Amino acid sequence: MKRTNNYEVTSLDMQKQQEMIEAMRSMNEGAKEVKKYIIVTYGCQMNEHDSEKIAGMLQNMGYHETTDKKDADLIIYNTCCVRENAELKVYGNLGSLKNLKKKKEDMIIAVCGCMMQQPQVVEEIKKKYRHVDLVFGTHNLHKFPELLVNAKHSDNMLVEVWENEGEIIEGVPVIRKYELKTFVNIMFGCNNFCTYCIVPYTRGRERSREVQDIINEVKDLAENGTKEITLLGQNVNSYGKTLEEGITFAGLLRKLNEIEGIERIRFMTSHPKDLSEELIDVMAECKKVSPHMHLPFQAGSNKVLKAMNRSYTKESYLALVDNLKRKVPDVAITSDIIVGFPGETEADFQDTMEIVERVRFDSVFTFIYSKRQGTPAAEMKDHISDEVVHDRFNRLVRKINEICAEINRSYLNKEVEVLVEGPSKTDNERLMGRTGQSKLVNFDGDFSLIGKLVKIKITDPKTFSLNGEVVEE
Ligand code: 5AD
Ligand code: SF4
Fold this sequence. Notes:
Number of helices: 14
CATH topology of the largest domain: Rossmann fold
CATH architecture of the largest domain: 3-Layer(aba) Sandwich
Largest sheet: 6 strands, parallel
Bound molecules: 5'-deoxyadenosine, iron/sulfur cluster
Radius of gyration: 23 Å
Structural class: alpha/beta
CATH superfamily of the largest domain: Methylthiotransferase, N-terminal domain
Number of domains: 4
Strand order of the largest sheet: 2-1-3-4-5-6
Strand content: 15-25%
Shape: globular
Distance between the termini: 34 Å
CATH class of the largest domain: Alpha Beta
């Protein structure tokens, strides 16, 4: 983790946080030993980016990052509750910290993020995980410095979770994990209330950041060496609806496309019901907007889509994809799919398989339906047995992988343009980068290529990555 940006403090509340940051910094700078933190993040990019903000605040407070829990003075779990599995992991990890905390009494353990927006979770933590020092939610992340100072001075667990979202807070410092490619929030919350999903309850109602705030952040990033941005929002296609100035997501992309230094613009996630013709046109026209559309369809059957409250049909989804492929021929389409929604029959599942075969996704995140307390789907009848769901899930994943391998094989001997990100994960003497379609490419090359756009000829495609060699110009 590297860099902080220096936004002006914009509100009174942020001034207070700044004071807390400074007080903590002078305390930490006067301490005999460097104070260290670990942040463990679960879930989506939105959470990853929130963790970058927490890291930004901590580093401004004089904390240093460590990877060893035994060494940490502060451990933070930034949690996710989209599926039960993620929640169970958090409980397990919190439990295992009990002994560590006994040995190191002044260690602070904090839990934050989506799970904490659920009252029953907070009750469980209060009851069974008394060694936790601080609990806060998604809506008061910017108040973390103040909460941390208060938690340090309190003998009891400090719990502060805001039930509702407030206004968007600008000016939270960020330490970005990667300098070359980074996340930029463009909106928060979701109004869609898909019946299986907990997000609208944990992240609040949809609200967009002001255009100028986004432009300022992206310009600042470009000046500091960022080449690729990923715009984040639960439903980026409805960007602008809460703003006065009448701008659409496509309009925002056009403006960001003008910013010098930025080479690639990605975004996620797009809801099929809101994907506009204008957005497809922008993808076709704007060179920097990557030809990659993450377009979750969740399920293929119209009956299930209706029960999910997704507001599109199998036919309209396929027509949308056809239009997208026609206007942006090199587009990569990726998706999210849920298997085993209540009432899903084998025939319904075959509709999902049909979409997979027709669209030929470049990659898919596949999920087994997880019952979330408080969502309408949790009350529905006909929950599917584990055995049936796993069988469907395995068949689906097999099909998806077959198609991914076929798509990747079609890259053999083709030249692609790659933004070089750094050493390859599998062999750190090689390099890795991604194409505009987000395909991972490994190749031999000089490390001075990092941060550059380079032409690579694909020589050895694999199922989940491509191997190639630099094309000498
Ligand atoms: N069960 C399984 N998957 C879910 N998702 C959201 N809620 C659930 C749930 N209750 C998946 C959706 C969404 C992705 C981020 O997580 O596919 O697009
Ligand atoms: Fe959840 Fe649906 Fe909103 Fe996505 S669009 S965050 S799946 S409610």
